[in-house]
Design brief:
The complex is a heterodimer. By secondary structure, chain A is α+β, with helices and mostly antiparallel strands. Chain A has a single domain, classed as Beta-Lactamase (2-Layer Sandwich), CATH 3.30.450. Helix content of chain A is about 35%, strand content about 20%. Chain A has 4 helices and 6 strands, in the order E-E-H-H-E-H-E-E-H-E. In chain A, a hairpin with a 2-residue loop joins strand 4 and strand 5. In chain A, helix 1 runs antiparallel to helix 2. The longest helix of chain A has 30 residues. Chain B is mainly alpha-helical. Chain B has 2 domains: about 120 residues; about 220 residues, no CATH class. Chain B contains 22 helices and 2 strands. In chain B, strand 1 and strand 2 form a beta hairpin. The chains are: A alpha+beta, B mainly alpha. Chains A and B meet through helix 2 and strand 6 of A and helix 4 of B.
Chain lengths: ~180, ~450
């Protein structure tokens, strides 16, 4: 099954973009690769380095009030919200079986199964077709792991955490990407 | 006869100018589907402001956002559109379409309209937060129509009400030791503004001999006295700055709002977004007290609202604007009680010079407060007067952070704003009731601390 989404391989000056048909799986895998890399860079190079190692600035959920860095999860969500405002043909979110904000718990059966699956085997993404609000989606769930000590310390110590024994490298949740199917 | 009545109604409906036309306006009034809310009644005859032909709900939504999106964003809206567009919320949207303002705020339905223009039943939080007691056992048994009405939560603006903020303010004193309101610090701001026209308005005080009005249009002695006392004269702003659009341009005897907006753009934008300027913003004649639903002073009925109706041309006395400007028109219980309030006593001391600048509390201190204004493109922030009074008006909890907390503790402010009688008395006295939210946070923090301690005690 191929998604009718043209991936432009166009340079800035190249008017005629080459295009190819990609599968839903290839599309979500590619999107996730970018998301995961950006997320890891922010968590390691900004938050963990400046908060945990250099101790020059803190990261806080209330970063404006506290004059602090946005949390990595917020950074991810703000990006997701900005993308959503542009009404693209996909959406993504960050969910967990152990969410600090309970609105980010698994809700649909595919989310529950997916988060369970990637918690057991983080190396294998979970793919499923699901229907939400009369629209059929290709839903992919990818493991979201603790990539730095900042993830572990913050989640284990947060007053609203339902789990306080996370370890570095462990799956803490999942990135869920949805593409409406034609 | 039928054709004549039909033509009259059709003209009223189809011509936008009929909203402001003495003869055609009644035709539009007859076509109103129901009494409009307090928020929109001033522009109710400008149907086109909200309704677009054949636009449907989305066009209506765009109209809502055109006026309200900026304020919602600056209030860190707790339920923004972005929370609901994710397909995982499709089941919730089927119950309550939170992507559209009109789902909760339907206009022209006076029979079901509650405070804040809400037309849903008061327990609407239930639709998404039915299982809140699982996460917050302290909320078990609380009525869902109390979430929004008990002083604890608001649907949009929770800047002063979120748990961690309450936790930071558990030990606030009711009144700070030496409270002072923010300063505007114009000179410091100007120094940072790269596009400030310093060549035209050098920051040097002008005297009477410097006036640049042409012969035959020279200022009267009274005008000159007024102008010399203003910040305008002290900041090099000469007569031509307002009376001439550009150097060499024609002299305008009575400059309008556009002249003020040339330098005070942000303030003008706020004025147009608020209750004083919203009619002008929609292309209607200026608001007058005669059109207000709140009680107004009878002799002010026909005053048209513009910049100079409060600020007074040539004089531009912000202190006068901050109290007399308001009380000249407003005649409701809260306004009339101001001069018997402790806030007014502080204001009088400031005016008399026996208390420091910023220690007095005028009408404007709370309703047109000095707030932080960010200029994102320049990476600057400065303090300006917010001329859109909606920013701190209703629900009254919106006032807590930008206004009350400059002088009062959070718990005191929450209790005071929950006491309607105290508001009517313009805060003469102390809050009669108590909102539990801070106590609930104290209990929760203690419980969490005890829970964390227990495993260590066992080991």
């Amino acid at each position: 099954m191929k998604a009718r989404i043209a991936i432009g391989i166009a340079g800035l000056t190249c008017a005629a973009a080459a295009s190819a048909q990609v599968s839903y799986k290839e599309l979500t895998d590619a999107l996730h690769l970018v998301m995961e890399s950006d997320r890891t860079v922010y968590t390691r190079q900004v938050v963990n380095r400046l908060q945990n190692e250099e101790k020059v600035i803190k990261a806080s959920e209330h970063f404006k009030d506290d004059k602090a860095l946005p949390l990595p999860a917020q950074m991810f969500r703000f990006g997701s919200e900005m993308v959503a405002e542009k009404k693209p043909a996909f959406s993504y979110s960050l969910l967990s079986l152990w969410p600090i904000n309970k609105q980010n718990a698994a809700k649909t059966p595919a989310e529950k199964e997916g988060l369970d699956a990637v918690a057991k085997d983080p190396s294998k993404p979970y793919y499923k077709e699901e229907t939400l609000g009369k629209v059929k989606y290709f839903t992919a769930v990818y493991a979201d792991r603790a990539v730095s000590p900042a993830c572990v310390s913050c989640h284990n110590e947060h007053k609203d955490t339902p789990k306080n024994d996370f370890k570095l490298g462990q799956t803490m949740g999942g990135v869920v990407i949805r593409v409406p199917m034609k | 006869m039928t054709i004549a009545i039909g033509s009259y109604l059709a003209a009223g409906l189809l011509l936008k100018r009929s909203a402001d036309d003495r003869w055609l306006a009644p035709a539009r009034s007859m076509l109103l589907p129901g009494k409009t809310t307090h928020g929109h009644h001033q522009i109710e005859l400008a149907c086109e402001s909200c309704h677009k032909p054949f636009g449907g709900k989305q066009a209506l939504q765009e109209s809502c956002e055109r006026c309200h999106a900026t304020e919602l964003k600056s209030a860190n809206d707790t339920h923004p559109l972005s929370k609901f567009t994710d397909p995982r919320n499709a089941d919730r949207l089927e119950k309550l379409d939170a992507t559209l303002c009109v789902t909760c705020h339907t206009e022209h339905r006076p029979g079901i309209t509650r405070p804040m223009g809400v037309t849903l039943a008061g327990d609407f939080c239930f639709h998404c937060h039915a299982d809140i007691a699982k996460d917050r056992p302290s909320h078990a048994g609380l009525a869902f129509n109390s979430c929004n009405s008990a002083g604890c939560h608001k649907y949009h603006d929770n800047r002063a009400l979120y748990e961690d903020f309450l936790a930071k303010h558990l030990n606030d004193a009711p009144v700070a030791a030496a409270p002072i309101l923010p300063r505007r610090a114009l000179r410091e701001a100007i120094a940072q503004l790269p596009d400030y026209p310093a060549d035209r308005f050098p920051l040097k005080a002008l005297d009477a001999s410097a006036q640049d009005a042409p012969a035959g249009l020279r200022a009267t002695a009274g005008m000159m006295r007024d102008w010399l006392e203003t910040s305008h004269a002290k900041a090099g702003v000469n007569c031509g700055a307002c009376h001439q659009a550009d150097k060499g341009a024609a002299w305008t005897e009575r400059p309008g709002q556009a002249a003020c907006a040339g330098c005070h753009g942000t303030e003008t934008k706020g004025f147009l977004a608020g209750k004083h300027g919203m009619r002008v913003a929609e292309g209607l004649s200026p608001m007058t007290p005669a059109q207000a639903r709140l009680p107004m002073q009878p002799d002010a009925r026909d005053r048209q609202l513009g910049c100079t109706s409060c600020h007074g041309a040539h004089r531009f006395d912000t202190r006068k604007a901050a109290v007399e400007g308001c009380l000249g028109c407003h005649g409701d219980e809260h306004s009339l009680a101001y001069k018997r309030s402790p806030h007014y006593a502080l204001w009088q001391k400031e005016l008399a010079g026996t208390a420091p600048a910023g220690s007095g509390v005028s009408c404007a201190s709370c309703h047109l407060p000095r707030v932080e204004h960010r200029i994102e493109d320049l990476g600057l922030k400065r303090t300006l007067v917010q001329h859109n009074q909606n920013g701190t008006l209703q629900p009254s909890e919106k006032m807590i952070r930008p206004v009350c907390l400059s002088c009062h503790g959070l718990g005191f402010a929450i209790d005071a704003l929950a006491d309607r009688a105290l508001i009517s008395r313009n805060f003469a006295g102390r809050p009669g009731g108590h909102v539990d939210s801070l106590d609930m946070v104290t209990r929760r923090l203690r419980e969490l601390r005890d829970k964390r301690r227990k495993p260590e005690d066992k080991s």
